[in-house]
Amino acid sequence: MGFVHSLSSSSMVVCVLLGFVLILGGKSSAQLSTDFYSKSCPKLFSTVKSVVEDAVSKERRMGASLVRLLFHDCFVNGCDGSILLEDTSSFRGEQTAGPNNNSVRGFNVINKIKAKVEQVCPGIVSCADIVAIAARDSTVILGGPNWNVKLGRRDSKTASFSAANSGVIPPPTSTLSNLINRFQAKGLSAKDMVALSGSHTIGQARCVIFRARIYNDTNIDSSFASTRQKNCPLPTGSGDNNLAPLDVQTPTAFDNDYYKNLLNQKGLLHSDQVLFNGGSTDSLVRKYSSNPKTFNSDFAAAMIKMGDIDPLTGSKGEIRKKCNKVN
Ligand code: HEM
Ligand SMILES: *[C@@H]1O[C@H](CO)[C@@H](O)[C@H](O)[C@H]1NC(C)=O
Ligand SMILES: *[C@@H]1O[C@H](CO)[C@@H](O)[C@H](O)[C@H]1NC(C)=O
């Protein structure tokens, strides 16, 4: 009897623990789905795409900026549209935090998409979801892979300057282990991190971000370094905002040239070149450099995973009327 009793109570403990594991482990994305708005806003995808196409045809770089926006939104308190909020008297937002100030772009495009979406289905679609769709559309327009975007995120009622500044978004001076740790902290693997870094096949960076690398790093191609030094002078402070393409070969095409650059020590950021510098991610960089199909499918899978980070669902948060302001 005592044996039976202790057996059943210990299996009860196991069941309760298992229940907690299921609840905690399943919290991130269970509620997102690709058909979330299929009845409530059937024109959503075409509406978003038309605005993104228009913006990218005017400026190719905008596609890159919209891809990055998802990363910087999702890594700070989840994919909740918080990065879109301007400062208010009740909170200081994320837009002027270190990783974003004078750097993150695309807010006007998101606001424009939102205005169009409100015309076709008012009060239905979150800004957080619009960011996720715009990142996918931009990738496709620039020649990258397509994927089905999971939807159903709601918008935050606040944003956090301090959270955006806390190091959750790793800096470009990062070591490989810091990059791996920061992505791990968001449930993303080293493989996801290497694949997502492949989005540095598009877009631009400022001199102030890569100056230390092109003057001081030793794992850099010397002619590449001197080319970049021409438009990124010393001393620090002069030409800080001068831009250079993250991918020296095809800066506005979404392809796997980023990894080929790394093999040739032509990564623009210190945090790019650490992915191929004799460490644990070298083999993945080699694989993606020679196998664009594997890169494309791993990138798409990692973007879906990144879009699953801590969404607000159910009755949490709100559906903003305008993306730059809480209701
Ligand atoms: C692995 C860690 C990462 C670091 C350290 C990093 C760092 C940076 C930095 C410093 C810039 C240039 C900022 C400036 O000069 O103002 C940049 C640009 C960019 N990043 Fe990352 N990034 C990382 C991961 C990602 C991820 C995961 C994505 C998206 C999936 C992404 C997409 C982009 C894009 C597209 C640009 C160009 C944006 C534009 O031209 O407007 N990055 N990144
Ligand atoms: C953001 O950049 C501006 C320069 O454009 C600067 O004046 C301001 O101090 C920066 N904000 C923060 C918080 O660093
Ligand atoms: C290069 O490294 C030296 C020594 O650490 C430092 O004083 C200098 O500021 C660095 N140069 C740049 C451009 O970062």
From TrEMBL:
Q: Where does the Plant heme peroxidase family profile domain start and stop, copy by copy?
A: 31-327
Catalysed reactions, semicolon-separated: 2 a phenolic donor + H2O2 = 2 a phenolic radical donor + 2 H2O
The region annotated as signal peptide is 1-30
The primary site where this protein sits is: secreted
Question: Keyword set for this entry?
Answer: Calcium, Disulfide bond, Heme, Hydrogen peroxide, Iron, Metal-binding, Oxidoreductase, Peroxidase, Secreted, Signal
InterPro entries, sorted: Haem_peroxidase (IPR002016), Haem_peroxidase_sf (IPR010255), Peroxidase_pln (IPR000823), Peroxidases_AS (IPR019794), Peroxidases_heam-ligand_BS (IPR019793), Secretory_peroxidase (IPR033905)
E.C. number(s) listed in UniProt: 1.11.1.7
Bilayer-crossing residues are none
Cofactors, names only: Ca(2+); heme b
Entry's PROSITE patterns? Answer: PEROXIDASE_1 (PS00435), PEROXIDASE_2 (PS00436), PEROXIDASE_4 (PS50873)
Q: Where in the cell is it found?
A: Secreted
Does Disulfide bond show up as a keyword for this record?
yes
Q: How is the cofactor bound?
A: Binds 2 calcium ions per subunit. Binds 1 heme b (iron(II)-protoporphyrin IX) group per subunit.
- The answer, when asked if Membrane is one of the entry's keywords, is no
Q: What does this protein do?
A: Removal of H(2)O(2), oxidation of toxic reductants, biosynthesis and degradation of lignin, suberization, auxin catabolism, response to environmental stresses such as wounding, pathogen attack and oxidative stress. These functions might be dependent on each isozyme/isoform in each plant tissue.
PANTHER family on file: PEROXIDASE 67-RELATED, PEROXIDASE 72-RELATED
Assigned protein family: Belongs to the peroxidase family. Classical plant (class III) peroxidase subfamily. Belongs to the peroxidase family. Ascorbate peroxidase subfamily.
Entry protein name: Peroxidase
